[in-house]
Amino acid sequence: MTQREARRKVENDLRNYPYWLLAENAAGLGTPTRWDIVTSKSLNNSVVEKIAIKNEEINNKIMLIEGVLDLLDNRSKAIIERKYFTEKEQFDLEGILKEYSITKNTYYTVVNKSLDKFAVALRYC
Question: Could you tell me the residue ranges of all domains in the chain?
Answer without folding.
Answer: 3-121
